[in-house]
Each structure stands twice: as C-alpha cells, then as structure tokens.
Amino acid sequence: MTSFNTATGPGRGTWISVATITLLAIAIAIANLGFPPDSALHVPDYAVALLGKFLCYAMLAVSLNLVWGYCGILSLGHSAFFALGGYAMGMYLMRQIGTRGVYGNPVLPDFMVFLNYKELPWFWYGFDQFWFAALMAMFVPGLLAFVFGWLAFRSRVSGVYLSIITQAMTYALLLAFFRNDMGFGGNNGLTDFKDILGFDIQTRETRAALFATSAIFLCLFLVITALVTRSRFGKLMIATRDAESRTRFLGYRPEKVKLFVWTLSAVMAGIAGALYVPQVGIINPGEFAPANSIEVVIWTAVGGRGTIIGPVIGAFLVNGGKSWFTGLFPEVWLFVLGALFVLTTLFLPKGVIGTLREGWIAKRGIRTSKHLEDGELALPKPQPQAAE
Amino acid sequence: MTRILALIGLLFALITTPAFADRATLGPIISEFATAKGFKGVEVVIDKLAATGDPEVGNALRALSAGNLRFRRSDGAVFIVTSGQALDPITRETVDVGTDDPEKFKKVRVKNSIRRKISAALSGLTLMSPSIDRRLRAASTIFETADASALEALEVAIKDEQNQDVKAAFEDARASATLASGRDDADKITAVKHIAARGDREALSLLSRFEGQSEGELKSAIANEIAKIESSLAIWANAQNIWYGISLGSVLLLAAIGLAITFGVMGVINMAHGEMVMLGAYTTFAVQEFIRATAPELFGWSLAIALPLAFLVSGTVGLIMERGLIRFLYGRPLETLLATWGVSLILQQTVRSIFGPTNREVGNPDWMSGAFELGQLSITWNRLWIFVFAMAVFAALFFIINRTSFGLDMRAVTQNRRMAGAMGIRTSWVDAMTFALGSGIAGIAGVALSQIGNVSPNLGQSYIIDSFLVVVFGGVGNLWGTLVGAMSLGIINKFLEPYAGAVLGKVIVLIAIILFIQKRPRGLFALKGRAVES
Amino acid sequence: MSNRVTSSMLYLDNVHVAFDGFKAINGLSMILEPGEMRAIIGPNGAGKTTMMDIITGKTAPDEGDVWFDGKHDLITYDESAIATMGIGRKFQKPTVFESHTLEDNLLLAMSGRRSIKTMLLDPGGKAEAQRMNEIFDTIRLGERRKDFAADLSHGQKQWLEIGMLLAQDPKLLLVDEPVAGMTDAETEETARLLREIARDHTVVVVEHDMDFIRDLDVKVTCLHEGAVLAEGQLDSVSADQRVIDVYLGR
Q1: Total domains present in chain C
Q2: For B321, which residue in chain A has the nearest alpha carbon?
C-alpha cells in the first residue's frame, strides 16, 4: 500500500546540497587560515570576503524563491527586508564602537554627535546587546512583512499589482532612510565598525567565522525551504500559486498561506542582511534601491525558481559574473545583466537547475506536465516518494 | 573777454541743462555739510537737498551714503573723494585740490538711518526721471522704506504723472509715506486701507511694521487690515500650492500617460517605459546640439523639431520591443516585467555609452523661460507650457482611442481578441501599433520633461515607480483615471511638502497609495462587472 | 425565520444581482430539501453560474436571502467559510491543481486539517489513506494516482474534480456541467457516479445535456433571465411551452 505521508523531511537532493555547501565552506576556511599565503592551496582573504557576500546573496535569493517560486508572489521589494536586517546589525556594530569613534562619545555614534543629537533616540536602545540586535534583525523585517502582507493579501492584491506596491514599499524606505533626521545616519549609513561580540571585525579569523556562519545559515535555510515545501502546507502553497481561488472553494484561506510564507521569507531575508553587514563593513540606504530587489529576482530566475538549490546556484553565477565583468569591462556589465533578464525569461524560464532536472526527468521517461493555466510555468515537482 | 565767454557758456548751459541753473543754489547747500552739527545737522542738509527736487544732487548724496563725501578743513569746500582723487560734488569732474594729504580733509559722518534717508531722498528725486522704469523703482523704494520726507515730492509727482501704472505705484508709495509722516489718523487710516488693497506680502510687512508704533483707532484699523491680508494671502498660498500641484501633476501625467496605454489598455508591464521617456529627452538634447552646430537661429524651434523625432525614436524602439520580445510573453505579466526590466538596463547602458554618464543640460527656448505674476501667483513659463502640453497630449490620445478607427480596433482587440480577429482585425498588428503608440507618447513626454530637469541615463528610473502608481491609483484601463490620478497625486504631494518636507511628503504619499491600492485594488475609476473578475 | 428556511438544505428567496445594470439574477427563489438532487437547466445567460457564485460566496447578491442548512445566512460569509461549512463546488471549466499529482489533489481536498500548523507538522494517517483508496475506486482513476493532474484528459479532470468534491465530504454539492466534453460512455458513467453520490449528499447539477438529465431522473428547475421559469419533473418541465420557447425549442 502506498503511503502518501508528506512530511518526510528534506529530500535527498537537499541533503546533498547541504553537505556540499558545508564541505566547501570548511575547505575554504581551512585553505584561508591553515595555509600560508604563498601556498598553492591558500585562498586569499579577498576571496573569502567575496564568497561570504555571495553566501548572503544566496540566502536572500533562497528567501525570495520561497515566496516567488513556490507561492507565486513576485516581490520587487525583498531587499527592503534584507536592508532592515542589515541596519539592525549595523546599529549593534555602531554601538560597539564606543569611545573609539572620531568624537569619542561613549554612547552616541559619530554621525549623531555630528548632527547635534543630545541623547540616543529611543529606537537605538537595546542595540548595544547582540541578542537584542539579532532578534530585531528578524523581528523588524518580519513585522513589516506581516503588516504589509496582512493588508495586501486580505484585500486580494496579487500579481503585478502586488509587485508594484512591493517596489513602492522599498522605494519609500529608500527615501526615508536617506533623511538625516530618521536617525540612521542618512546618506552615509552606518560604517567604521570595530568589533563584533568582542572580536575585531577586521581579523582573518573573525572574517572566516562570519563566512562559516553564513554557510551554516544558508544550509539551514535550504533545509527549512525543503521542509516547508515538501509538507502538505507546501503542496497548498503550490496550489495557491497555480489556482488561488480554487483553494478557497476547498475551504482554505490563501491569504493566510501567503502571509505565513511572506513573513517567513522576510525574516530569512533579514537574517541574510544581518550577516551581510559585518562582512562588507557598511550599510547605507542604497541597499533599499528597487533595482537591487529586481536583481535578486534574476538570481533566482537564472538558477531556477521553485527548486531548492536553484537560487543558490543563480546567486553565485550572476554575482560571480558581475565581479568578473565589473573588474574587466565595467561598461559591459549592464548589457550582460539586461540580456540575462531577457534571455532567461525567453529561453530558460525554468532556470539552470529546473532545465537540467527536466532534461533528467525526460530521459528517465517520466511524463512531465504540460503548461499551467495562468501562464505560470510548470515547475519541477517534488519527486513521488517510493513506497517503503 | 574770458568773463564774457564764461557768461555765454553759462547761458548755454542754462538752456540745455536746467540743473546748471541751480548750481548756484545747490553749491551752498552742499557746503553746509561742512558746518552741519552732528547727525541731526546732516539730516537737515539732506532734507534741504531733497527739497530742491533737483536730480543733480544725486552724486553728492550717493557719495555721502558711500562715505566718500569730505570737506576741506581749511575752507569747508565739499568734495567727493574716491581712490585718492577729489571730484566735484555736483558734476563729478576731477578737481585739482593741490594736495593728497588726507589730514586736510574731513569725512562727513553717516550712519545707517541716514543712509536710509538718503536712499528715500534719492528716490524722491528720481520720481521726476523721464524713464518709467526708474520712476517705478523709486516708487517701490519709497513704499518699502516708508519715507515721510518723500511725501511732498510724491504729491507733486502724482499730479503730473501721465502713466497709469506709475501713478498707481506713486499712490502706494504716498500711502506708505503718509503712515510714516506726522499727518493725522484719518489720513493714515485712508492710507492703511489703500496699502491693504494691494493684498500682498509687502503690504503685510509694511503694515506689521506700523502696527507696533501706532495706537488707538489707527492700531485697530491696521490690525484689521492685517488680518484681512493674511487670510487672503493664505488663500493665494493655497492657490499657489494647487498650481505647483497641477504642475507636478502634469509632469506625472506626461510620464504616466504612455503607460496608461501599454499597461492600462494592453496589460503589458513595461518596466522600460521610463527609458522611453529618457530616449525622448536625449533626442531633444541631440536635436539641440545639431541645431547649435548648424543653424543656431532655429534654436527657438528646437522643441517643435524634437517632438516628432522623439515620437519616432521611442515609438520605433517600442515597436522593436513588442515584435522582438513582448509578444512572446503575452499572458505572462510577471515575466514581461522581468524581461522589460532587462531591456531598460540595456537602453540605459546604451545611452550611457553614447552620451556619457553625466547629466546633460537641455536648453530652454526663450518662450519657455522666465515667469509672470497672476495676482499673488508666480507662474513660470516652462511649467505653464508643460501643463498645456500635457493637456494637449491627453486630448490627442483621448481622440485617438475614442474617435479614430485605429482606436476602435485597439479597444476591440483588448476587449475580445478572438472576436476582433474573427472580424478581420489584424490583432498582432494592432498590438504592435498600440505598444508603439504608448512608447512614442512616452518619447514626447521626454521632450517636455527635458525642460524641467537634467537629462541623464537614469532619468527614466526616477519616473517609473511614480508612473506605475499613477496608473494603478487612477484605475487601470481608464484614461480619465490617469488624469485624475496624476493631478490628485501632484496636488496632495505639494500640500504635504510644507508640513512634512519634500522627501517625507513623498514617503507619506507612497504609503498612502500602498494603503489605497489595498482598499481599492482596481484604483479610483475601477471597471466593474463579471468580465474583470477573472 | 420561516419553517421553510429551517427545514431546507438550501433556501434562496427573491435574490437579485446586477453587473453594471445587467440583471444576472432577477428575483430568483428556490428551495432544496436535505438529501435532494436537483438538476438546473436553462439557456446561456440564464444565471446558472452566477447562482452558484452567490451560493459559494464568490458574488454578493444586491438583495434577497440565501440560507444554508437551515441556520447559516450565506451572505455574511466568504468562500472559505462557506466551503468549510459544507458546500463543495465543481466548476464549469474543470479546475484542478495541475502541477500536483492526483493523490495530492485529493489530499488537499480532504476534509479537516485547514490550519497552517497541522498542515506543516501533521503527516496524515491511515484513515486518510483508506478514504483516498475508496475515492479512487469511485472515480476509477486509481491507476493514475501518481500522475500529474495536467496530464489527464478533459473528462478525467472532471472526474478528478468530482473526486475532490467527495474528499471534501460536503453536505451540499454544486456540480456545474459535469459531462461537458465527455463521450457518451463517460456521460453514462458520470450519471451513475452522481446518483451514487446523491444517496448520502444533497446535490445541485447544472447541465445542458438532456439525456444526462433524463438519466439522473430528478426534479428539474429551468432558469431564464435570472429567475425560475418552470420547476418539476423533467417531463412536465419539458412540456411547458415557455421552456420550449426559450430553451428546448432552439
């Protein structure tokens, strides 16, 4: 007798991905710290910093994939959650500077002294504690997403309308954070960080530790994605994506489904931002730029939305390409990125992983589904589970 | 013999310049500066000079004000001393005084109150100037300084004045001078009413100045008028805000109206719409560069030449986009969004490669520059023309959609594609043309928008979010909705600015729209019925 | 509340709906007793689908009363709440979750378990597996339970949707054109299926296929321009001159 129990844990593919990422991360950390710079096996510091940044981007792409790939919500504002998480961490790092700032004020960060603040604004309280900042890096993006989503999904705003207002949301935050009197450092943002949890943020060991932490969180995110999407709830997410109104007539509330996934995704994006900031050493309002959010979409699309590992591959491919191009032919990069958007949507709508997997399924003679009703793509499904 | 010649010369001078006739009277008065006792004494002399009504005293008074009027200790002769030279106080001819020892001269001392008196006296003198411009300027100086000493000169001048504008200005100035004078309260109250009738900010500040100094009935009359002016100014300020709002609304309308076609009518999410606007602006820039290089006399026509070209450039790019990309993505709005975003990046980089990354300045033809006053409103010509232009574009588009056969085809295709196809309409051709039309209109919007800001490769990015919000806010598929949406967003924005500041005002508007869309997902002017349910 | 309301499964009284002036439903009244199966016929635009939209909460009526199971005023509830109360609907155009397998389609339709927490954590049990096997036997699609719904034929999708209705186990089933696009054999099979279902459910069937309706052998209501034109046994309704004029005669 067939069992159709659904919550059977992450699939084999996810575990392989997680294991690969972990092994690579350990190898890179060892190669960076354990070998002298002149050794052939040495990984230079800048590469570790770059890969750490990519890991955070990958986390952001994974969080976007959860809402877009599985639930059909195309967010053009995910970098807002990322940046809010980043600001929470940045505020902690600012307060760790203490008297080592230019003005030497033990409580007020430099920019506040410069702007004639007399005392710390209330919303900066508590950020001298790491646990509080870490909590806020999840709570603030989560709260924003919850309120925004509650309003949007309840009134059935969906499709491109939703995309446009998510873009307006991040644009509004961009404008707001540019203002000096918001109390977040205005144009310059937060920077000149000194240490994190007592460790000097500049040392190789701290950087390697941040890199490793990012890798661990990325793996965690992949496991969460797999667990959620393979549960019965995950099936409902996909059903909501493909035929939202049909689920209502089965007694489901798609707005609640979306709200849950949306908020979860925002929290994940916030964590990604919080890990990103100590590695790049700055957070400024530019992170809210709508163009950033759309770039995240293309990472996810290139790798393969609706697949577990696709967004990670996409984030590394596109950002790797970006680093390479901007180093060699900076003026060509936007052409490449633009072409990537066009070509991916036209010729590779399932992304690299989706297309590979489809080819593999076709080879195995498994029937694939045809096109879906509302123009969304037939995405790779969880493999039917073999009877045990 | 020399005496006779001198006499003839004097006679001659008498005929040609009446001023010389007064030389005899002016000279002695000017030399009184040497004996004047303290500042009071100096003021008395100034009054005497002003009373002559002779413009020739100007040189001396101006020099006095600048601190250059000095008298010789030995004989009390008065000179203008500047950059080591002594000049005649009336004619400013160089006079040889034989010495440059500064100790031999003493400066006539002045202070700020005296300088004000001098400037009022000077304007009293220029009241008789043959130049209308100078008379007007003199009147406004007296009005602002409220100089009682000019009162009599003004009353004389008003009688002789032929020009109505100048006469009105003189009357304003007289009222102001009356307030400062020692006349009785009845006169002053009449003057207060006269000033108040101007209803502008200058009248307000003048009256406020006198409110403190006066008492009794006069004081309450002034307070009364101040209140009236303030309330009328508040109305004008609102009117000004509405105008700014309409002006911003026109800009939004121009940016969004092409989108109302491509997104509103066709349902295509064109993220490269802003770049169509940008292309139009760069077309204007290129046209102007070409005209400057080849035929500068045509510069006034540059915008008229740029309009059709911009329509063609953006329209062609739109046509290529539709044929080469968008038609493969119909019915897949989210993917259209991504692909057109890609196109927008490519267009931006293309323009950046050709024209450079920096801002380019597009010139304003004469008829687009400057401003005029309408009541208490200040209206710049370029804003006014952009408003007119936006309305014209709106009307033209409205006409095309509702009154032409192409518009009919367009509406037929959007409402029922298969039926339209069955009736012999070439639906794919209509799609392409509609998209080209929307893009072309964005292009001509770019011509107009190049007049109010710098032109850079990022120009489109700054309009795209606003444009989408206008269309969504107004209601998709409804041109009137776009018009009302653009205007109301413009006006709300401008009314918020004074309270919240420009940036925060914009943030508030954005949040308000986000909330509004959630309340009414289909915008202000929503289409109803079963057809839109799906 | 009148006795008719409390004793009925579905009670519609003087319902009106207009779209931009077009009166889709115009004074519709109808009563369905518990356990009854009713066939609805009528020309296109008679308001059949709009009536279902009103019952399932998709469209709010402009005026009139809609009561379910003698106690629920349906006008005050939305689609999800009405579905949970026990009204299931099969759409005119078969609407199944195409990127899911047949199993998963039934699984999502299965009654109970609507909260996010249980859906995330509870893996499901033997009772559900048993029910699913029964349903697959009923709709005769057990062979294809691992296939994706997108790969089914039109008629099979209709059956799958009926299977989903069964899994939902509602008190009242609204079935919109269940045999459209089916072969004669399939149509007969579907009629058998519906009669079987009607043994322990209240069912409303909208159809154009008169042979199928004859097969069902139930009370018939003919709608025209948003109101009831005739009601009764098929023979008497189809003999009604007005029904012949507006519908059958054509």
Answers
A1: 1
A2: A342
